[in-house]
Amino acid sequence: MTQTINFTRKVKIELFQKTKPSAKNFDFLLGFLWAKSQLDLEKNIFLIIKDELTKEKLLAFLKELKIEHQIENSNLIIFKNQIDFQTQINNLSNFFAGFFCGGGTISDFKHTSYHLELSSYYEQFIDLVLEKLNKYNFGFQKISYRQKYLIYLKKHEKIADFLKAIEARNAYFEFEEEKIKRDFYNNINRIDNIDFSNINRIANANGRHIDNINLIFAKNLESKFSQHQLKAFEIVLANPGESLQSLSEIMIKNGIKITRSGLNHWLRKLDEVVKEFKN
């Protein structure tokens, strides 16, 4: 029986897989240690790591950077004076990605509310992280819990912004897809009014969408999208003059449960994939 991977784990796997152990990515390691490590009486860095992927990635970093350490089962010690916690952070995206891998969680989709949490054993670290993140209007709040210090978010759009900030691209799209599903079931009886003043804007947008769709089929980029998304794009091609609301209604009739805002998200994803391909 296949075990379901929770969303936090998916985010961490994506971040670990895209971050190569190297001096260039030292900020990732530093963020991880700010979140995960404790100092013993001799000021050695002590970590307990039970997850095999996390252990493998961390050991690869330590080997690449020639950092002296000792490991026994789940216990890892980095000897004192090997890591300077005051090192200047050059890449905030990498640093926060590492911090999330060391001490971050996001509520799973089965929960009715959204929750992102970052933690550290040391208040001075969590205070600095709080200050840096809230400079970008995230609105993190701080609490202490079970001998740890936590900062957290509960707003969907801010959690999505954080996933973008740490460049967890796949996780970001999955998170937004889940929001779309919730919106659909919460608003299935709501019908958006057509704004006739936006006819020209709709026409221009439709032209761009059609060009993008033709490109992904011509360049064999279908693997970037789900079967429902590809079927939706075919419906867009077959109905070039329709508004998003009308297209949504057509798709529902064809077995694709999607709201206007959900379809708009798919088309924004289409824009991103085409832009990435052209660059």
TrEMBL record:
Residues 93-184 form the WhiA LAGLIDADG-like domain. It comes from the Bacteria. GO terms for molecular function: DNA binding. InterPro entries: Homing_endonucl, Sporulation_regulator_WhiA, Sporulation_regulator_WhiA_C, WhiA_LAGLIDADG_dom. Keywords: Cell cycle, Cell division, DNA-binding. Residues 188-273 form the Sporulation regulator WhiA C-terminal domain. One of its GO terms (biological process) is cell division. The keyword Cell cycle applies. The keyword Lipoprotein does not apply. Belongs to the WhiA family. NCBIfam families: DNA_bind_WhiA (TIGR00647). PANTHER family: CELL DIVISION PROTEIN WHIA-RELATED (PTHR37307). HAMAP family: HTH_type_WhiA. Involved in cell division and chromosome segregation. This is Probable cell division protein WhiA.
